[in-house]
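stage 2 :: seqdesign
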């Protein structure tokens, strides 16, 4: 850590202390982080304690950590607030009030919320424009039953608080895309969220399950992604980081996977990584069938303070590596402060650390593995009542 980083962190900390002192003169920080006996992680602690969070939804953008950094490019004076009122979908001619209209037709920064609970059956993949935040907090929104989300050549995107499930593959088609341009799409696999050449993307508090391909694909040169507080369950192939063995641009891929809950009934790829670097920290692994973390083509993974609960019967080993990658040096998987239950084991490649080298906007303190259960307890889309906290 450079002295600049330390100064920056200190500054932030002092500011935070000041803010707490301002808003809650009687409560200590320790108490604040344990509202209703709930221990909150660093992301949630940034907004969930505030019963007035609805008044300033975009404040959420300041709460992200990890390789996505702070999402402050998504907010500011020129931000357009857009409310989804209509669950219908027209892929080529989106109607005002629909999710697709908000995600493609508005040329400025947009913060999308939902008027009421709804189930949206997308007719075609939803292409999301740069500088878009989709905020499902306070509503029960399901995107399910057909096409799902696609972030293609876009940047600065927040997806928060959605249930995405039962996603099906899609035939080649054309859809309305960013900047009101019609975009021809090839075949799209049935993933819940797919990133293709995307950067600076924050996926937080979503519930993802039972899709035909995977739940999350980060591919084709995508980087600077934080996957936090999500609940991944009931899925064979959960998370793919890196397109295919031959796609060398994914060497620069950097992804943070933190405070997620994997399981029950997840089989493999939590994540599977090719080429790039993943910092996998403070996640709860509620069993697996084939493996939890695997990879090929010189992937680098720092697994830090996760809780790996092996299945009662079957494979106890967390990791998997593709056949040809047995040679030392090509495959760097490190386990630091991880916790293992039910006989779980983690085969490391060699001793080492592989720091993520986070900037001041990205850095966060990784908690002890003992805290993983409480810190991931609220993973997935939150239930927020009309009058109270989330
Ligand atoms: C962090 O920096 C060290 C030293 O320069 C380097 O070896 C390592 O690969 C870097 N980590 C990442 C994730 O780039």
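stage 2 :: out
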């Amino acid at each position: 850590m450079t002295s600049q980083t330390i100064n920056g962190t200190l500054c932030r900390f002092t500011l935070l202390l000041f803010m707490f002192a301002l808003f809650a003169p009687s409560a200590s920080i320790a108490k604040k982080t344990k509202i209703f006996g709930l221990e909150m992680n660093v992301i949630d602690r940034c907004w969930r304690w505030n019963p007035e969070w609805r008044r300033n939804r975009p404040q959420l953008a300041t709460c992200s950590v990890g390789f996505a950094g702070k999402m402050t490019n998504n907010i500011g004076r020129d931000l357009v607030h857009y409310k989804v009122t209509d669950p219908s979908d027209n892929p080529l001619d989106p109607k005002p009030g629909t999710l697709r209209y908000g995600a493609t037709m508005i040329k400025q920064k947009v913060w999308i919320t939902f008027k009421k609970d709804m189930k949206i059956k997308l007719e075609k993949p939803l292409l999301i424009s740069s500088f878009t935040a989709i905020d499902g907090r306070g509503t029960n929104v399901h995107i399910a039953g057909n096409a799902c989300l696609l972030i293609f050549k876009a940047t600065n995107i927040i997806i928060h608080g959605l249930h995405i499930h039962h996603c099906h593959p899609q035939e080649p088609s054309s859809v309305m895309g960013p900047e009101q341009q019609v975009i021809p799409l090839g075949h799209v696999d049935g993933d819940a969220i797919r990133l293709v050449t995307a950067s600076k993307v924050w996926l937080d508090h979503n519930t993802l399950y039972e899709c035909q391909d995977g739940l999350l694909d980060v591919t084709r040169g995508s980087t600077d992604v934080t996957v936090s507080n999500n609940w991944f369950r009931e899925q064979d192939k959960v998370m793919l980081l890196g397109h295919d063995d031959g796609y060398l641009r994914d060497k620069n891929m950097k992804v943070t996977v933190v405070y997620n809950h994997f399981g029950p009934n997840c089989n493999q790829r939590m994540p599977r990584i090719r080429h790039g670097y993943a910092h996998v920290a403070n996640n709860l692994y509620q069993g697996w069938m084939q493996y939890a973390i695997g990879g090929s083509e010189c992937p680098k993974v720092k697994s830090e303070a996760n809780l790996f609960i092996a299945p009662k019967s079957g494979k106890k080993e967390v990791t998997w590596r593709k056949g040809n990658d047995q040679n030392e040096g090509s495959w760097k998987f490190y386990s630091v402060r991880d916790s293992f239950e039910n006989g779980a084991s983690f085969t490391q490649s060699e001793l080492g650390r592989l720091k993520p080298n986070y900037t001041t906007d990205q850095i966060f303190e990784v908690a002890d593995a003992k805290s993983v259960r409480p810190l991931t307890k609220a993973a997935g889309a939150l239930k927020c009542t009309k009058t109270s906290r989330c």
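stage 3 :: structure notes
- Confidence is low (pLDDT under 50) at residues 1-33.
- The chain has one domain: 31-376.
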